[in-house]
Hints:
It is a single chain. By secondary structure, the chain is of the alpha+beta class. The chain has 3 domains: 10-61; 76-185, no CATH class; 190-263, no CATH class. 34% of the residues lie in helices and 21% in strands. The protein contains 7 helices and 9 strands, in the order E-H-E-E-E-H-E-E-H-H-H-H-E-E-E-H. It has a 4-stranded mixed β-sheet, with helices on one face. Helix 2 (81-93) runs parallel beside helix 5 (157-170) and helix 4 (132-145) packs across helix 5 (157-170). The radius of gyration is 30 Å and the shape is flat. The two termini are 54 Å apart. 14% of the residues are buried.
Amino acid sequence: xxxxxxxxxxxxxxxxxxxxxxxxxxxxxxxxxxxxxxxxxxxxxxxxxxxxxxxxxxxxxxxxxxxxxxxxxxxxxxxxxxxxxxxxxxxxxxxxxxxxxxxxxxxxxxxxxxxxxxxxxxxxxxxxxxxxxxxxxxxxxxxxxxxxxxxxxxxxxxxxxxxxxxxxxxxxxxxxxxxxxxxxxxxxxxxxxxxxxxxxxxxxxxxxxxxxxxxxxxxxxxxxxxxxxxxxxxxxxxxxxxxxxxxxxxxxxxxxxxxxxxxxxxxxxx
Length: 270
């Protein structure tokens, strides 16, 4: 509970009823000898008492409104394989697909599909299948790793096998597979996103005239992998680049992309 007051008050909080009564019938004295306004919080009676400079108390009833904790997706009962497939097809019909994160999310397949997030159909899916993201994690993990570690969470061995097969048909493609193993195999932060802006330098301390240069600021978002002690942490770092550096970066990234394409041409064993 947070209390905000426009003036300065001496704040006392007591859980003992006798202490509260004692405080209410007493007046706080400032070191200068002047009476100091006082606030007493009675947690037993849910009352807030103000005592002014004359020692006169004024009490009001209080209500504590706390935000309800979000329900954990895994706390819901396992979905049936039929409902799982139905829900996945409904998401796909909206032009949405799944991310390969440890906590899967949905993303639009194209820019035109972004409006689907505001549609009544998507809201209905969320309300009707609150466990769906967790089920996606269980099914895709089982399909890609062959692990039976999630058998109980998925509702049994038969249920997990069916859901894994459904996920393999409706979710897992080459891109999803690469993203899944990339994020589960690495032990260092990966580049999640880049925000940028262009700055024109018109004035500089100690310089006569206008420098008249432009440079870019790149805000790098670094995501820590989920299987480390810093699981899921998002960090940010901002760097400056000029046109020469950008050209150099493009050359390096183009070369990296070429080698990645060649490396990804190797056929996976599963």
